[in-house]
Design brief:
This is MAP1B protein. The protein is α/β, with parallel strands linked by helices. The chain has one domain. It is 28% helix and 26% strand. The protein is built from 5 helices and 6 strands. The strands form 2 sheets. A 4-stranded parallel β-sheet has the order 1-2-3-4. It is globular.
Amino acid sequence: AWNSKFKSTAVPPGPPMYLDLVYIPNHSNSKNVDVEFFKRVRSSYYVVSGNNSAAEEPSRAVLDSLLEGKAQWDSNMQVTLIPTHDSEVMREWYQDTHEKQQDLNIMVLASSSTVVMQDESFPACKIEL
């Protein structure tokens, strides 16, 4: 519940900032990221990290905040979410809010490429800015 006595500390007040690529802080945990973050920090790409459901990373509240914040932008520029892990939270949010994502011009990128480095392999995606 939003109360005017409690101000968001994640983003200082001021005009919106436009960026190409933003890593959502703190493994997309809702302690640091709220609607105000997405109203102010406007990006073409957001990296959604976190693969810890016990710690709520990524947080469903953060993903919902993106939808709410983006709805208040003055343009409908395309936004791409880049999840670093295939989490249950991300899958449920994607299915539950797919129509709203389309209305807001938000795309969730599924990584289909794998990078292999020495003894380690991990999913990857290429972004051209």
